[in-house]
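REQUEST
  id: r-88c1
  op: predict_structure
  target: Ig-like domain-containing protein
  payload:
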Amino acid sequence: GIHEFTAMGILDSRVIHYFDSTTQVKTPRTDWMKECLEPKYWDEGTRSLKDKQQWFKDYMDILKERMNQTNNEWYTLEQWRQGCEGEEQPDGSLKYSHGLDMYSYDGDDFLYFNDSHSVWVAPVKAAEQTKRKWDQEQKVHNYPKGYLEIDCMEWLKKYLTYGGKDLSTTKKPEVYVFANNAKSKTNVVLTCMATGFYPLEIQIHIQRNSRILTKDDGVMSTGTRPNGDNTYQRRDSVEIPTQRPGHLLLSHTSTNWC
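RESPONSE
  id: r-88c1
  status: 200
  body:
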């Protein structure tokens, strides 16, 4: 269901911990997170996320006023994404590459931290007031860079160590190809569905006459979507003449299939 507040930790596209406003408890979503981290970690995480939940609720009221949505009966969505990415070095160590600290409102970028220049950036006018306030408060201004480059990287290294083989395991996609009638009797809608794969990066191409078809040819794709079990799915389709069938080209780290 839809919760007032939801938070999750994601590592290499896998959900590793979860919290929502209904359960009010931070819980592990992998066996290795449950086994490697002590109860203190989960207790402190729960308290922290409860505080964040209240902050979001208070700040949502402020944003609604700025957006003139105080009488809006529709749902509004505020999202915060924070994380870091590291690059493996020749000696096997992990070095900070870049980080993300971004707030969105109703699907649009609202405020984000530029870690290269150590400044908050306000893409919309309604965020300018918050940007000025956070830039002036030294503690708030310095926190994102320090957290992303130090604290976040330390946790990233720990999680990768804890996850071990589980994180390096790949899962092959189950591939289904089928054709449905199109509006035109001389055409069919060719569809390819790949599901149950991990990691999420996958390439699907439909080819006709030795040429890969694109959006300009009418190719439609759902994009890669989660299945809910730490695997992913994607569906691509295109309308083509019945007498000239297409070919499927699929590439995934776990396999190559044509």
